[in-house]
Structures are given as structure tokens and as C-alpha cells.
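Contributing: when you submit paired examples, paste them exactly as shown. First protein:
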Amino acid sequence: LGSLVAQVVAKHHPVPIEFVAIKDTYAKSGKAAELLQRYGLTAKDVEQAVRSVIKRKRK
């Protein structure tokens, strides 16, 4: 779904995009906090992705 939305947005408004999601893998089960950490989806990880996009946009 994310790639479809990105494709539509990019067609009309070219902007840098960073996907924040579980990579192509089978996810394990466990406590939410542990899983967020394992798959790079903590608030800090999302913040870093946003900062990366902002830096690319400014170039």
C-alpha cells in the first residue's frame, strides 16, 4: 500500500520519500516494545527517518 501511495503522490508532487516499515521478513511475536526495537520502528527510528528526508529535501 505504501508504494502505491508514494507512486500517486510522486506523480503529482515530487517529494523525497522514506519508507518506515518492517523489511521483507517474517516478523516474530513478542512484546510490543521489543518488536519495535527489533524492527527499527521506535519513535527514535521514525524521527531519524524524518530527519533524513528533510535533509534530502533541502538539497
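Second protein:
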Amino acid sequence: MSHIGCPLKCSCPSSPPSCPPGISSVLDSCGCCRVCARQFNQDCSPAEPCDHIKGLRCHLKAGGDPNRGLCRAEAQGRPCELDGRVYQHGEDFQPTCEHQCTCVDGVVGCVPLCPHHISLPDWRCSRRRLTKLPGRCCQEWVCDDDNRIAEVEPLPDAHPQEHTDLTGNELLVAPSTSWDSSATAPYQGKKCQKTTRSPKPVQIVFAGCFTARRYRPRSCGSCSDGRLCIPSVTRTIPLHFHCPEPERDDFTRNVMWIQRCSCSQRNSRQGLSSQAEFFNLPNDIHTYTH
């Protein structure tokens, strides 16, 4: 051993340690490996040195292990006072969940614990806000666009009264009379009316079978210049259908789910009227034989 408690040959981890904010990365007392420095009032040893940057050194315990001690201030520094509390020179503390602070000779220095740069939510999110979530410390981006499928527990009634009926291979786009009459009002603005959603979760029916869960599908409104308002951003989701007839098996079917709408190049008089309840989208829903 070159020094008491030090090895003849250094053996260190391949990557340097990842120390918490405000904690220095220092060489151990043997000069071998980088470690996270021990802080005020923490145990120390040659392999676990105190944070000399904060004026701490390892004070060995009298009559105890000669290689173990406590980190104390090397020179008597002035204490710090913050929000009515007194902290000793070299002491680390967290006044809030957002900051880690250190008292150094009467001066409090703090580093933030929350990230400076927060990743933005998905680009499809049109309504984003920066907020603190319940039970969390740091601010986070929240998307108020609920692009997820709202699901609730299956209904106990095997014959529900309220369905969204997908007959044949058609996809529901604008059941405007029962969802939002303003969504299909003509000549209001120059773009598609806001994409609407069913006001409450409904079951989707296909070929006499219905989903065991309820959903809130989106629909497209209308374009004020007479063009068709059609889906522009969609995704495919699998829906599981339950068939009440004992001779028919339950099945899963891929369905196109609307996320955003836009005005097409076609005039509504060339296609469907604005009051159409269903809209057949080529290549999105394939034909299946049951």
C-alpha cells in the first residue's frame, strides 16, 4: 500500500460518477478515482473524501476507526441564515424542491434541480401549457388536446341504448345533428370548423356487434366556402367488437381514428352533402367478410 488504506494499483469504474446537483466530483484521497465528494456532517474515508471546494475536511473520530471520520469545516466560517433558519458553514440544504443550496462562509449558493430546457410536447398538440402537476416539483409541458381514446369500463347491459353505428365499411365522420350543430353551420369562417368530439363516451357498432368499451371519436365539421371538411391527420387503432349472437365470434377490427381535419379541393356538391352522417375513406378501412 502506498498510503494507509490506498491500493498499490488503481482500479476505477469505466465512466465517471454522476453526482447530484451542487455536489463536486473529486479524486479520492489516494488520487486514483473520481468520486462524489462527501458533504457536511457525512461519513468520510480515504476512498470517500470531503468536498474541499466547500472548505470541508475529514475529521477522524477520537478512539474510533482511524480511516473513518466526519466531514467538518476546515476553517471556522460564518453561518448562513435563510428564511429564518440558520445553516452552518459547509452545510448543504434544500429550501425548496427546486433548489439545492450550500452555506459557504455566510453566503448561500444554490443550483437549480429542475431542468433549464423542457422538451416540447408532440407537434400535433395545438393547446400546450407549462404547469406544475399535482405531486410534482418541476414545471412540465401539458397538452390539453386529448388525443388518447377515452375508455371506460364495459357496460353491464349487453344491449346498450347508445351506439355509434359503423354500418358496412363506412367510417363515422360528422354526426353533427346529435353532437354539435355549430360544427356544420355553413359560411362561418374560411377554414374547417373545429374538430368536434362526442360529448360523452359511446359504444361503436359494426355489423351488429359493438365495442365492450366506450369511446369519444372525433368528427369533422364543415368548410365555409363549400369544400368538404375531411380528416387530414389520422391513426389506425384496433377495436374489439363483441357479438351478442352465440353463433358469432368476437373479433378485432382496425379502424381509422380522426385527429385533425382540413378543407379538401372538392366542392361539397361534388361529393357528399354537409349533412352526411358517414364518409367512406378509400384505403383506410379494408373490406372484411364475416
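If you have annotations for the second protein, write them as plain sentences, like these:
The chain has one helix and 21 strands.
The helical segments are 176-179.
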